[in-house]
Amino acid sequence: MSIKRNLVTIKGIKDGLVFRLDERCEFDELLTGLRDMLENSETFLSGPLVWIDVRSGGRDLSDEQKLQILDVLRSKRNLLVRSIEGSKSAELRENAVLRVPINTMSGMVRSGQVLQHDGNLLFLGDVNPGGSIVCTGDIYILGALRGMAHAGSEGSEHAIIGASYLAPTQLRIAEVISRPPDSAEESSAHPHETQMEFAYLKDGQMQIDKMANIARLRRDLNVFKGV
C-alpha cells in the first residue's frame, strides 16, 4: 500500500520503507515537500528504528543533492537511510555497507557469550556487559551496546561500529582498542536524548560521531561509488 504525501510516496517493504520522490518537480521544491511530509507525520514515522531506501526515479542526483536529502531525513532519528538511488543507480548508503552484503541476526548477547561473524553484521538486540561481538567487517547494533565490540577483526581499519545506544565496556577496530567514549557516558544520564552513534578510526585513533554524519565520512574517505 502506498501513501501519497505531497511529492513523496511511501511504500512499506519487508525490511523497511521505500521513499519514492517526484522526478518532475524542481529539486528545491522536492526538498521542501520532503521536509513538510516528515514534520507532519509524527505518528507514521515515529517509533522504532526503520531502514529507508530512497528512489528518485528518472531524476539524476548529484552527491551534494544526496547529502541534502540525508540532512532532511536525519531530522527523524529513527530513520536509517540505507540507500539513495537515482536514474544511474548510484547508491549512497548511510549504513556504509557498499562492498559486501550485510547479514542480520537477532537476539541478546549475554555476559560470557561471544558472537563471532565473518563479514558485516546487523544485530537486532542488546549486547550486555560481559558479552562480545567480533566481526571481520562492520558491526551495526539496533539496540544497546554495553559489552565489547570488535570490528575489522582481521585487520581492516576501515570497519566501523554503530549502535543505537553506545555505552560499551570496550571498542576495538582492527588492533586499536578504546575505552568507553565520553559521549556515551554523558548521555547515559539522559537516555531519551541519545542518538545512534558509530566509532571509526582516524589517523589510528578511535573517534565517535553521530550516525547521521557517516555519509560525509565515507565521502571524505572516497568510499562512495562514482556517479
TrEMBL record:
The gene behind this protein is minC
What InterPro entries does its record include? CAP/MinC_C (IPR016098), MinC (IPR013033), MinC_C_sf (IPR036145), MinC_N_1 (IPR055219), Septum_form_inhib_MinC_C (IPR005526)
Cytoplasm found in the keyword field: no
Name-wise, this protein is Probable septum site-determining protein MinC
The UniProt keywords, alphabetically, are:
Cell cycle, Cell division, Septation
Question: What are the Septum formation inhibitor MinC C-terminal domain coordinates in residue numbering?
Answer: 106-208
Oligomeric state and interaction partners are given as: Interacts with MinD and FtsZ.
Q: Which PANTHER family match?
A: SEPTUM SITE-DETERMINING PROTEIN MINC
Q: Give start and end of each Septum site-determining protein MinC N-terminal domain.
A: 8-84
Cited function:
Cell division inhibitor that blocks the formation of polar Z ring septums. Rapidly oscillates between the poles of the cell to destabilize FtsZ filaments that have formed before they mature into polar Z rings. Prevents FtsZ polymerization.
Q: Which family does it belong to?
A: Belongs to the MinC family.
Recite the lineage of the species: Bacteria, Bacillati, Bacillota, Bacilli, Bacillales
